[in-house]
Amino acid sequence: xxxxxxxxxxxxxxxxxxxxxxxxxxxxxxxxxxxxxxxxxxxxxxxxxxxxxxxxxxxxxxxxxxxxxxxxxxxxxxxxxxxxxxxxxxxxxxxxxxxxxxxxxxxxxxxxxxxxxxxxxxxxxxxxxxxxxxxxxxxxxxxxxxxxxxxxxxxxxxxxxxxxxxxxxxxxxxxxxxxxxxxxxxxxxxxxxxxxxxxxxxxx
Length: 204
Prior knowledge:
The chain is mostly helical. It has eight helices and no strands.
């Protein structure tokens, strides 16, 4: 199919990748909890845009360049780790009843999700290693083949984000009946973000 060896396997593999817990999932859930469905959908679009940028950068060979120049790669890692830790710390030390950590306007949720996605250099490496597994070197049609994979990634990520947003909104409405649970979950989310940031620089 347009140079893709097993399109069905690609869909299944990427769906599994979406289900793996990570900073993207966490910011999606947190955005929805703080700002409702609109914020969750905005964060979803931010993640989709970030994935598109990373996937096309991988196609262009940016991951290979970063691997060739370790200093550049490590710099991106440290920036990403610092950003995640900063968000996590703000959530962790926020007082009960304080204003939402994530900004109220949907655009800010989109921007924040986009930055978190882009500042994950391991995602570039993932795409760099992931794409070749499903490309037929003989039948591949260049940009058309990669375009099919990129569109598939965008559609799957968007569907996943919508489902996750609706489920989060459903459970968040019930958690608001018990503010203590929401407060504890916010602290847990903050710790997770800090943990993701540390893992980004410690596990290479």
